[in-house]
Amino acid sequence: MAWRNHSIITEFILTGLSDDPHIQALLFVLFLGIYLLTVMGNLMLLLVIRTDSRLHTPMYFFLSNLSFLDLCFSSVTMPKLLKDLLSEKKTISVEGCLAQVFFVFITAGTEAFLLSVMAYDRYAAICHPLLYGQVMSSQLCVGLVLASWGLASLNALVIVLLAINLDFCEAQTIHHYTCELPSLFPLSCSDISINIDILICSTLLHGLGTFLPIFFSYTRVVSTILHISSTSGRSKAFSTCSSHLIAVILFFGSGLIRYLMPTSGSSLDLLSSLQYSAVTPLLNPLIYSLKNVEVKAAVRRTVEKYLHYFRK
């Protein structure tokens, strides 16, 4: 690769979450539990949606893709974090670091697009219920998911090309537990002003381009719900939308803080990264299952089905 010719260092040192061995042991147990629960929760949601024919609708098609994304997203950073919590020296190769940056951007970027698509789905279902089946056809749903992956991949490729052209000369300590582009910029001996401007523009375009459709969709949704005369109808509509709104706030809030605020190596940097890369993938299955009557009923049917199967 081109950057091999002008980068002196071959690896970075990660400071991680703590230097205290006892705290690291506690953090290892904590994050191992979080990762295992994240994997089990999202796999369970995927299994339930796959096996229960009542959930074969556009809303749950998008939700199954969100669960798959959360599995991928948490797996980009969590295994490395767990390994480092058990290691005295926390290092990552330059190649591995850039690969991690790429996969963070592609998974997080796709999730942002998918949350926007899910907001449009709720708008179509609540504001135009009679046309919902025609509007949200299976071809459109698949196309929207593929477009989300494609646009996020393009954005991730542009971002990584920026990082590849950076010179890393002497400083090699990343004050973070993972490789993220804002933490790499201070280590470069190149002029990073253009890179920072492009990253901010990319984040704003990506963030606003996905958040604004969510905002306008839910403005219409709330207006429509308030005009529903039935109390039970309003309650059901708010219930299906509130889960998605919680997921949006958790994801966009922490992500925008991380990529728009100046990097300082502070606890806020670490907490915002942990929020969207570890906590949100854990909470999404709980949010969508605990607040959704259809999912809870499907989980019960799936569990009863497999218990009956194993008793035979």
TrEMBL record:
The keyword Transmembrane helix belongs to this UniProt entry's keyword annotation: yes
GO CC term (a single one): plasma membrane
Gene3D superfamilies, A to Z: Rhodopsin 7-helix transmembrane proteins
UniProt xrefs under PROSITE patterns: G_PROTEIN_RECEP_F1_1, G_PROTEIN_RECEP_F1_2
Ranges that cross the membrane: 25-48, 60-78, 98-120, 140-164, 192-216, 237-261
Major localisation: membrane
Alphabetized InterPro entries for the sequence: GPCR_Rhodpsn, GPCR_Rhodpsn_7TM, Olfact_rcpt
Molecular function terms from GO: G protein-coupled receptor activity; olfactory receptor activity
One Pfam family in the UniProt entry: 7tm_4
Residue intervals of the G-protein coupled receptors family 1 profile domain: 41-288
Bilayer disposition of the protein: Multi-pass membrane protein
Intracellular or extracellular location(s): Cell membrane
Keywords, ordered alphabetically: Cell membrane, G-protein coupled receptor, Membrane, Olfaction, Receptor, Sensory transduction, Transducer, Transmembrane, Transmembrane helix
Source taxon at top rank: Eukaryota
Record-stated family: Belongs to the G-protein coupled receptor 1 family.
Function recorded in the entry: Putative odorant or sperm cell receptor.
Protein name (Swiss-Prot/TrEMBL): Olfactory receptor
The species this protein was found in: Lynx canadensis
Lineage: Eukaryota, Metazoa, Chordata, Craniata, Vertebrata
Gene name linked to the record: LOC115518695
